[in-house]
């Protein structure tokens, strides 16, 4: 064992009852440990929230979405769908029409987000885990068109799946110069659908109604045009690489976005919040580490005679600095290890047992999600060590300088 480290260990575990410096060092170590543990837990919570949002997106949104660069709609010839399907990694393509509309049920009405999808949507079984009642079907056995309704709309309009006599009536303004008077019933196209299923994912999707694309096309007068193509990626393929390949295949008139690109603003906001929280917690660890500065400064004053004796025995200023830096390193590494282990255990316990609830309804999780990333743990450990070593340097240098003065 290095001499400087052996002396530092001796100082750290000093049993001198007249000195409270070792106690202050232990308090400093505890402060660093608590700050480290807090950083591990908070960063893991942000990772968990990011992961949860991706799971929510995956439950409702497509892996890749193809939309026109200009305008809201585009023609979908067979060659276009074939071109998309020919890209390696594409599992399926769904034609989509999506826009706002007015829904009526009984004597109530509300603005909804109407999404028309073709028959491939049923085969994807995308909403299976989010269904609260009914079935994920667009047509009944006798050809009756069904609507798959979000829980929010069901509650707002008091929709009952058992009531087979009352349909959902969807209205959309006619594209006609004579239909400018929106107070007239003649200004709207009408579509009647029978409630067939209820789903719930998260509040942001609580205004959606999913219906057959052919009927939505007739309602909105798209005349064969579509607002988007939703692409499913086969297992084992990366969404980003497949989206880039589709973009190269289709050219510049289409914007091709993977799921992260579709929700780039939200994911960017989470990352920015995580960054600023990490900076804030680093400053808190710095405040806790200041105790190390004071404990080492007091230790340097108390050990003046020891330092002078070491100089008399042939020690040089470098050895004295190493002793006090080693003392700071003991506090830093001890606090970092205890804090990292404590943070990992807390995250594991939350993942395993879900002690802390989110306090909100969601179809995916009940407890706060946490996700440990080893890069965050490494970052936390490095930050703690750097901060504590920096605050240890000044007392170590002063101790070496004071020893030289006494020697002279």
List the helices and strands and how they pair.
Layout: H1 3-12, H2 21-60, E1 64-68, E2 74-75, H3 78-85, E3 90-105, E4 108-117, H4 120-124, E5 131-134, E6 146-150, H5 151-157, E7 168-173, E8 188-199, E9 208-212, H6 213-220, E10 225-226, E11 228-233, H7 239-250, E12 254-258, H8 259-262, H9 264-302, H10 304-312, H11 317-353, H12 374-407
Parallel strand pairs: 4-9, 6-8
Antiparallel strand pairs: 1-11, 1-12, 2-10, 3-4, 3-7, 3-11, 5-8, 6-9, 7-8
Helix pairs in contact: 1-11, 2-9, 2-11, 2-12, 9-11, 9-12, 10-12, 11-12
Keywords: Cell membrane, Membrane, Transmembrane, Transmembrane helix
GO cellular component, one term: plasma membrane protein complex
Membrane topology: Multi-pass membrane protein
In words, what does this structure look like?
The two termini are 30 Å apart. The chain has helices spanning 3-12, 21-60, 78-85, 120-124, 151-157, 213-220, 239-250, 259-262, 264-302, 304-312, 317-353, 374-407; strands at 64-68, 74-75, 90-105, 108-117, 131-134, 146-150, 168-173, 188-199, 208-212, 225-226, 228-233, 254-258. The chain has two domains: 3-57 and 266-407, no CATH class; 63-261, no CATH class. The protein is built from twelve helices and twelve strands. The chain has a six-stranded mixed β-barrel. The protein has a two-stranded antiparallel sheet with strand order 2-10. Helix 2 (21-60) packs antiparallel against helix 12. With 408 residues, the protein is of the alpha+beta class. The chain is 52% helix and 19% strand.
